[in-house]
Amino acid sequence: MASTRATKSGFAAEAQMKINSKYNDQHAHEVLDWIATVTGDSIDTSGDMDSLHETLKDGTILCKLVNQFQAGVVKKVNTSTMAFKCMENINNFLKAVTDFGVPTQEQFQTVDLWERQNLTSVVICLQSLGRKASNYGLPGIGPKESTKNIRNFTDEQLKASEGVISLQYGSNKGATQSGINFGNTRHM
């Protein structure tokens, strides 16, 4: 577990401090509040790193959250506190999130949450999932995602552009470099 590891030092400590400096308590509070609303659980929504980690660490709330999106998407939620069972819950959550359309660059790795390595990425993943919530009839967080706006053009409209010469092809108007002669001419 993370509590039995030695404290980081040197470059590792600097890198961890840089990662931790990006953490935003307000965003974490919004995400935890949203999770409490969707799941109906009473959880600590203070938003500090400790409360976020302790609330989500075992993965049961995350599995319950994605099961609100689609019933039975996580078939078995492990209630054991053994490390690998908790990490399996987190991994099942990540598989479900991928199916719901959260991009992989907005997801986190299991160890980011379990070992508290990068809680900022956990918050980003949950915010991205929160934007998808309105597509499943649940209250969402953050800006509403855009929808398709398909346009159909007639053949006449498409052919109208063929008579226009783009400026990318150049122009014979305007200033040219003809007649420019700087300095002395080249003598052979």
UniProtKB/TrEMBL annotation:
Residues 25-134 form the Calponin-homology (CH) domain. GO terms for biological process: actin filament organization. One of its GO terms (cellular component) is actin cytoskeleton. InterPro entries: Calponin-like, Calponin_repeat, CH_dom, CH_dom_sf, SM22_calponin. GO terms for molecular function: actin filament binding. SUPFAM superfamilies: Calponin-homology domain, CH-domain. Belongs to the calponin family. PANTHER family: CALPONIN (PTHR47385), TRANSGELIN (PTHR47385:SF14). This is Transgelin. It comes from Orchesella cincta (Springtail).
